[in-house]
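As a warm-up, study this chain.
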Amino acid sequence: MFGLGKKRSRLGKWIDQNGVTQQWLCKEAGINKDTATRAASSDEYSPNLKTANGIIRALRKIDPNVKLDDFWSM
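Now compare it with the structure written out below.
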């Protein structure tokens, strides 16, 4: 099980449920490991628009219906 015992944000729960790794997210979204960790563990984290769009673009490779406001209100 992914994320077992870790605090997870809405994004973190989504990547766990969809079998995505943070390493995959880093590669596909063009973000670094620290950014992926913050985004996946804290709902208080609010990425800049470029980072958020990169993450959404990557996630849409798995689910074309993913929207920015599924994870953050910007």
